[in-house]
Amino acid sequence: MSEQQKAQELRATVAESQAERSEIIFPGDTNSLGNLFGGKLMQFVDLVGAVAAYRHARAILVVTASMDHLDFVAPVHVGDLLILKASVNRAFRTSMEVGVKAMVEDPKTRALRHVCSAYVTYVAVDQSGQPVPVPPIVPETEHQKRRYQDAQRRRDGRSDEVARKREIRKTLTMDWHI
Ligand SMILES: CC(C)(COP(=O)(O)OP(=O)(O)OC[C@H]1O[C@@H](n2cnc3c(N)ncnc32)[C@H](O)[C@@H]1OP(=O)(O)O)[C@@H](O)C(=O)NCCC(=O)NCCS
After folding, report:
1. Which ligand 1 atom is at minimum distance from the Cα of 68?
2. What does pTM read for this prediction?
3. Which residue range forms the structural domain that includes residue 158?
4. Of 55, 77, 87, 177, whose CB has the highest number of CB atoms within 10 Å?
């Protein structure tokens, strides 16, 4: 049985790999305004997204290929309770698009404030870093089905960009071009 066939047999629902992470924001991770650094938030986004991708892929490793549509919607302050949720929107051949949403929760009222969203693409790889097939994902709810459709549209846009960058790389020297 080929790796592709083995992956096909491991098809799973979106719910089976969804991931959540909670953080209390401390002063060490903020700027002088007391807001969380964008880079730190990106790290949390990447980590929670990777957990969902790992769970779904059941691969040796997943690596982050790209992060896009990253929106910092509102600042996160010291002492805030930050909740991040991630789910695999769609699995392709060796890659998966994971949607991550971050909210700040008011512990008294449990009200949520949207602070950040992103789409992160992870690629399942073997021990030598070579991409390996991932199982198909089965969207069940209306939201999951919509995200599944939208993920294909975003992938089409990304493919053009990935191909364009590959072409540019072929013609560039090893010098800085900034
Ligand atoms: C991601 C990586 C494994 C892809 O390797 P590659 O040689 O381009 O492999 P392929 O061309 O066979 O592409 C494999 C998959 O990655 C996807 N991919 C590659 N670059 C991508 C990008 N920038 N954005 C989204 N998807 C990408 C391809 O579409 C393909 O998906 P598919 O199999 O589902 O169709 C490789 O670029 C890599 O190792 N990058 C470094 C990753 C890393 O270290 N991340 C941590 C942050 S530093």
Report:
1. 24
2. 0.94
3. 3-171
4. 87
